Amino acid sequence: MKIYIQTKFQDPEIQAFKDALSPKYEVFFGEGENSEDNKIHFLASEICYGNPPLDWLTETKKLQWLQLNTTGFDQYLQLKDFKFQFTNLKGYFGLSVAETTVAGILGVYRKIDELARLQTLKQWVGNPIRENLYLLSKKKVLVLGSGAIAQKIKQLLSGFECETTLLDSKTVTKIADYLPLTDILISTLPETIETKGLISKAYLEMLNSTALFVNVGRGTNVDEKALIEILQAKHIMGAVLDVTAIEPIPTESPLWKMENVLLTQHSSGGWVEESSGKVKFFLENLERFEKGEELLNIVDLEKGY
Predict the structure, then answer these.
(1) What is the per-residue pLDDT for 268?
(2) Same domain for 109 and 71?
(3) Angle at 169 between CA 140 and CA 161, to 5 degrees
């Protein structure tokens, strides 16, 4: 049986694959390249780890299981009539994204981003900054989404005695009831037909002037043009954006120069052991595959999760 690894891994992870896989498996590492040679190896494989091009998946006749290297699978939503099992990394990035969320909030509230800029300028401001600092303690937080990331955010914020409300796909329609009293609005939403553009200008305008918006879900879920206008007019305090509509952010985007915006460059899913943990997860799921057991994190493309 052949396994095709589309994701580019470093030597330690490659060795971990080789050490763990039994001789019955022939493994080929594609190094993340979408070359014709790699496509040939993919089409000859029964198992794939990574995110191959959509057209490869429409052509495969042998593939039995695809394990994505990501949680998101927006590029595969149009895939129809496939016969292989399709799994993702749902929940895998919950803690790391939650920690970036809290770090971003504290960065804005405690002016860490501004202090970092002052440090590069060797400029001491001191006391005047103190009167512009906020406390995270006991804030009213509204989280859009109820998955692993949202649950971890709520857990971390409990240490700050925050009043945290989670709205899932069924209750997110009640968002307007919460926004006027919300201190921090956090989106952890995936991209689906229902969530695309959900956070509209009208909703953003319901936030108060000291509110903070955090997006660690998908950039397409917010009206970015309206968000920029609202931030420029300082109708809300600021935003922490891990995701944006276009990534990388175009150089001409005003987001780069806005002092009330903290950009974390879609890095929230990362940590030192991220890659080694992915290998471990795949190998655990492979054991289930070998035993004919239900795989972890099966994706339903029609539902979008």
Answers:
(1) 98
(2) no
(3) 20
pLDDT of residue 303: 75
Is the same domain home to 204 and 226?
Answer: yes
Residue with tokens 């795989």: 295
Least Cα distance to 65 among 57, 73, 74, 77 occurs for: 57
- How many separate domains does the chain show? 2
- Given a cut of 80, is residue 305 above it in pLDDT? no
Domain identity same for 156 and 248: yes
Tokens of 166: 């989670």
Beta-carbon count within 10 A of 303 CB: 8
Return the number of other C-beta atoms located less than 10 Å from residue 1's C-beta.
14
Please pick, among 13, 41, 218, 224, the residue that the annotation labels catalytic: 218
Position 198 pLDDT exceeds 90: yes
Inform me whether the pLDDT recorded for 157 exceeds 90: yes
Which one is catalytic: 110, 235, 266, 288? 266
**Residue count of the chain:** 305
8 and 156 assigned to the same domain: no
Q: Respond yes or no: is residue 247 known to be catalytic.
A: yes
Q: What is the CATH number of the domain that holds 56?
A: 3.40.50.720
Considering the candidates 161, 247, 273, 287, report the single residue annotated as catalytic. 247
Residues spanned by the domain of 211: 94-263
**DSSP secondary structure string, 215-278?**
E-S-GGGB-HHHHHHHHHTTSSSEEEES--SSSSPPTT-GGGG-TTEEE-TT-TT--TTHHHHH
pTM of the model: 0.93
Task: Judge whether 218 counts as a catalytic residue.
Answer: yes
ω into 190 cis (within 30 of 0)? no
* 114 in catalytic set: no
